[in-house]
Amino acid sequence: xxxxxxxxxxxxxxxxxxxxxxxxxxxxxxxxxxxxxxxxxxxxxxxxxxxxxxxxxxxxxxxxxxxxxxx
Length: 71
Description:
Blueprint: E1 2-6, H1 24-32, H2 43-53, E2 64-68
Parallel strand pairs: 1-2
């Protein structure tokens, strides 16, 4: 079993967290400041991890949790 466990990712779901449009930039900045690279992940970055896991080069990974927290 392979589990992808991304950190905060910049997707539309963030707009549904109850933060007003006026406060959204400050909220996203505060969230980004909790991540070592200082920004939210992008959906394609998580997709790239998933794609890698189906290639033969990743065949030794039979049970793992992939943390995508930009650390």
